[in-house]
User: What shape does this take?
Amino acid sequence: MIERVVDFERLRWMRCGRCSHEWDVDSAWLWRFEQGDEACPKCGTNYEPLDRPDSWASQEDPSHDDTKVRGTFWYHTSTHSNWPDRAFDPTAGLTEVTKRRFQRSWADGHGLGRWAESQKTKALHLGTYEAAVENMLRRMHEQDCAGHQFYLYRVRLSQDAMIEPGVHRELPGYFGDVQLGEHCSDDIDIFRYVNTYEDPSSISLAVTLEAINAVQMIAIPLTVDVEDVWISAAAARLVDAASRPPPEPTTHFERMQRHRPSAVSIEASRLEEEVATRLPLRLRDWFDRLSDEGNLKAEPSTFPSKLVGLSTLVNEPLAVLESLNTVPWREV
Assistant: This one.
């Protein structure tokens, strides 16, 4: 099996939607492009038009080869400790009120059943190690998942899985919910697409459950040494901040705020900024709003440990992969 080299700082492949020019760029170029300071070097198209330059997969990517796809390890992050689960019940976490709303969403009263079936049959998304970690960071930042326990899965595909020819743009779907049967023939198990959000320009997969042969899983972030000098100092800073009142507002915006942030949450944000400076430029914005104030006060050392553990996923991937190597495979 192939284990790709992990590199969060690798060059990204771009393709202009207007003139079809292709070229590679670094993270700094991408950041300037998003600010409107860069454009296609051939035709000058910037980020504004619909046919703007966007991430694309280089023809040198081995995942264009069907055999390499089946012979490569793929990754996924989830808040579920038993992913993928053939006995998954999507209605288990719904309140009775929500269930009744689903039932009424269809005239025949079977809306809940239809929704549940669509959740059971929707495609599962796999990607590079980098894409899986970045997906978790994005969810923690954007989807209020910072307090959730995440798990990293290494995935081995079935050698019999049928692959849709070619590499495509990502299929449209709410929160990535895609039914492969609506876009491919019924015998297709794997659909390759260019990931433009996480590990941009990498190839990711939308797959059926039958495409997955086995998985390994570890809880992330990994445990770190709480006696680490920075962690100890950061915990002391949080303890001190928890004993202080919120700072007085100094700007018009701060005076207009209905709920002023506490001193401990402000200190937590400073810690996030400090750790974020150790990350690639394009990941730093996701290293924000990762704390829970209740836990900050109850267990001040936990949050700095979490920050260091999250940064380790990016900065020390070999340690993470070695941890996965110690876990037995679970057949799906």
